[in-house]
Design brief:
This protein is α+β, with helices and mostly antiparallel strands. It is built from 3 helices and 8 strands.
């Protein structure tokens, strides 16, 4: 009897582990489980949100180069800000990275990782795929001049949903953390600037 329960316990432990790995292996969720999802959503014609390109922003960043430890951490691949030009002494290197947000007419959005050149970013940016799985946005307020968006995404690593808000106006986009209840979101700082898709 003891062996039977032992085998059953091992089976359920292995099954649960496989289910956990399987769920974590999926980096997207069906659209229907998003709180902001609306079936057959179409962006209203009279609003300033652009969907024929990307909104991008340049971030000024730095890398603290340590001569004695650089090869240990970047043995397989050099840091993009360094390339093959290793320095003889410890130094701080300043460089730019490019990030973008992109939206579709049907409630989809994505944000990019940081690119090390504007040319690389523009080369990678392309219209949405009809078969792709993307996060979801909803319109919270809209007019001919300003649109406030709620952005929802699934964090596969933490197994939960995350929320942002965005403000689109005059070919610019500001992104903020989700406002607390009964508070207006704060859209401050440098905006993302619209750039149309590059014709290939």
């Amino acid at each position: 009897m003891m062996n039977k329960w032992l085998y059953l316990s091992c089976f359920f432990l292995i099954f649960s582990s496989c289910e956990l790995l399987r769920n974590r292996g999926h980096k997207t969720k069906p659209k229907e489980v998003y709180a902001y999802y609306t079936k057959d959503f179409v962006l209203p014609a009279e609003n300033p949100l652009r969907t024929d390109g990307i909104y991008y922003r340049v971030s000024e960043e730095k890398f603290d180069y340590k001569k004695n430890t650089y090869d240990r951490y970047y043995k397989q691949r050099p840091h993009p800000a360094i390339g093959e030009n290793k320095h003889k002494n410890d130094t701080t290197i300043y460089f730019n990275r490019w990030y973008y947000y992109q939206f579709s007419q049907h409630g989809d959005w994505i944000s990019s990782g940081g690119y090390y050149s504007k040319e690389e970013m523009l080369a990678k940016a392309s219209p949405f795929s009809t078969s792709g799985d993307y996060p979801v946005y909803k319109i919270e307020e809209t007019s001919a001049n300003v649109t406030i968006l709620g952005l929802e995404a699934y964090n596969w690593y933490r197994n939960n949903f995350t929320y942002l808000q965005a403000r689109a106006a005059a070919d610019s986009l500001w992104v903020s953390g989700k406002a607390k209840k009964d508070e207006k979101p704060e859209f401050e700082g440098k905006p993302y600037v619209f750039h149309p898709f590059v014709t290939k």
